[in-house]
Amino acid sequence: MGFGGPIGLIVVGLILALAFNDQQVGPLEVITLGWILVLAGVLWLVLTFVQQNTKRRHTTTATTTDAQGRQASTQRTSESDPPPPPAV
Questions:
Q1: Which end of the chain is more exposed for a tag (fewer CB within 10 A), N or C?
Q2: Residues with Cβ < 8 Å from 56, sequence gap 6 or more?
Q3: Is the pLDDT of residue 11 over 80?
Q4: How far apart are CA 48 and CA 1, in angstroms?
Q5: CB 37 within 8 A of CB 16
Q6: How many Å is the maximal CA-CA distance in the chain?
């Protein structure tokens, strides 16, 4: 998931919310629709940040050589969760 969708939604919402003066399309107010789109875009952006930062993967590769000159490689991958946010 990228950042383009939420940023685009925020931009469209701000244009609708700030560029129109008391416009209505049927029972729908354009300004209210704009602010709803801005809030949805911000929520989407926050969820994108949370999803991309939930797990961190770390890979370590070790190569050892014995007395006869043979090499052996060991690869180890670990996933860790970031520390929880501080309690308020």
A1: C
A2: 79, 80, 81, 82
A3: yes
A4: 7
A5: yes
A6: 84
The model's pLDDT over 46-64, given as tens digits with 9 standing for 90+, comes to 998 888 776 667 788 888 8
> Structure tokens of 25?
């399309």
The DSSP annotation for 12-76 comes to HHHHHHHH-SS-EETTEEHHHHHHHHHHHHHHHHHHHHHHHTS-EEEEEEEEEE-TTS-EEEEEE
Task: Work out the average pLDDT over 22-35.
Answer: 87
Closest CA relative to residue 49, chosen from 78, 77, 85, 13: 85
77 in helix, strand or coil? Answer: strand
